[in-house]
Amino acid sequence: MFVDMSMRKKVLDEHQLDKWLENVIEWSPTMSIPNRRVWLSACGIPIHAWSKGTFKNITTIWGDLVQVDPRTLAPSSFERSRFQVEKDWVTQIDEHIDLQIEDKVFPIRVVEMEKVIGLKCDCCCGIDVGSTGEDTDVASSS
């Protein structure tokens, strides 16, 4: 919050915030954030369907695909994928879905990721994601 418009202009100009912010608008008590971005992890996607197109199809259930984790696009393992979606509601994602490829249906588990330290992924693969002790995104246990 700025005391007045001259202070707002000074801060925006001095720190070149226009390079980082899409726009700056005056706050209002009725203002809300219409959507949020979350990372999802999916287990059970078959190797022959491992593609950005498949991830995009999966995310359409909840919102729009924003990006796919580079480790998912060039995996050392096909145990789980990780992608970001922009969604317009607050409920946390933890669902089983059926992915149909031709005449075969594959059960997939999709969970929203959270920041935690030193835990195993609980989506379905049990990958140890906290062995370095650094902050790591892993599946939520809720």
TrEMBL record:
> Organism's domain of life?
Eukaryota
Which protein are we looking at? DUF4283 domain-containing protein
Instruction: Read off the lineage from the record.
Output: Eukaryota, Viridiplantae, Streptophyta, Embryophyta, Tracheophyta
